[in-house]
Amino acid sequence: MAKFQPGNWEIVRPLKEGGQCWTYLVKRKNSDDDVEYVLKRLKNPERIGRFATEIEATTKLSHSGIVRIVDFCLKSDSPFLVTEYCHGGSLADCKPYWRSDPVAALAIIEQILESVHFAHCNGVLHGDLKPDNIFLKSAKGPPVVGDFGLSLLLDSDTRHTDTLEAVGPRLYMAPELENGRIDNVTEASDIYSLGKVLYWLLAGRVFSREAHRERQWDIKQFFQDPFSAEGDSSLEHVNFILDRMLDINPSERFDGSNLLILIRQAQALIRQKYHSLTLAVRHHCTFCGRGSYKLHIDNNPQKAREMGLTSTAASSWRMMLCNQCGHVQLFNFLGGEGWK
């Protein structure tokens, strides 16, 4: 077999081999440019449609958070494309500096979501979002989204993925895409995959289906709290986001713009250790620090009057009592809307 000659590019060394491509670290030949790039060489020429899709999608998206293509050749016996080189490697391979810091993990997913939302706004669905396809420009980021080979361009009728072929790995794939149902790919499918990426960033593992509310998978348990054996209750703010990304019904998932607001809010709330208003979380007494609050009154006018509280048609009371010192926390929900 003739030695591979990638045009104007000099191979420095091989990189991690993928399922569809050989990859190499390369530099420009006969140039003072010492910048390193990544060259992806297609293994099976019959898959050239994927290369064409990746090139079309990526060149359509000019964004700092999306991997930039600098060269490509589709007509030779060994089709290839060249992209910028991200020195930090993929999220799957790099040192997880964010693993002990929920705010850092949320900052990463915020930047990734900004890029994916930009793609959605420009008519591109990624279809294969997972840690292996997200890269860090340096050891500490920022993250960039790459590998658009399975993407869908909403203004194109051309599809380059066999309809019997699964889109992305099952652990990150939206349930509506299983069993080769790629025609169901939508923005919500990408959102689901990013929800799994967010969970993976924090937990270092991922579940097969919607299990983040089950006790053994609850994200709170992975972060210690000196006052609780159940973990850090402030991580319930992350569960609130996961609820809106991992809903089994695609129409119930939040879109990128609304999720960005929630993710930015969650970073501030977790940084300041604010409580999450849900009865599913055990809240420790802010007075004695030893007990925890138990529900005493929940929209019960009779009990409220016994405690000297007046209920009206426009309000409802919730009272929480510390089971150690009796400290009281009162909440008055207008319109009868309260915690769940």
Topology:
Blueprint: E1 9-14, E2 21-28, E3 37-42, H1 48-60, E4 69-73, E5 80-84, E6 89-90, H2 102-121, E7 124-125, E8 134-136, E9 143-145, E10 152-153, H3 187-203, H4 236-245, H5 256-271, E11 293-298, H6 301-306, E12 315-322, E13 328-334
Antiparallel strand pairs: 1-2, 2-3, 3-5, 4-5, 6-8, 7-10, 8-9, 11-12, 12-13
Tell me what the structure shows.
This protein is of the alpha+beta class. Helix content is 24%, strand content 19%. The chain has 6 helices and 13 strands. The strands form 4 sheets. The protein has a 5-stranded antiparallel beta sheet with strand order 1-2-3-5-4, covered by helices on one side. A 3-stranded antiparallel beta sheet has the order 6-8-9. Strand 4 (69-73) and strand 5 (80-84) form a beta hairpin. Helix 2 (102-121) packs antiparallel against helix 3 (187-203) and helix 2 (102-121) runs antiparallel to helix 5. The radius of gyration is 25 Å and the shape is elongated.
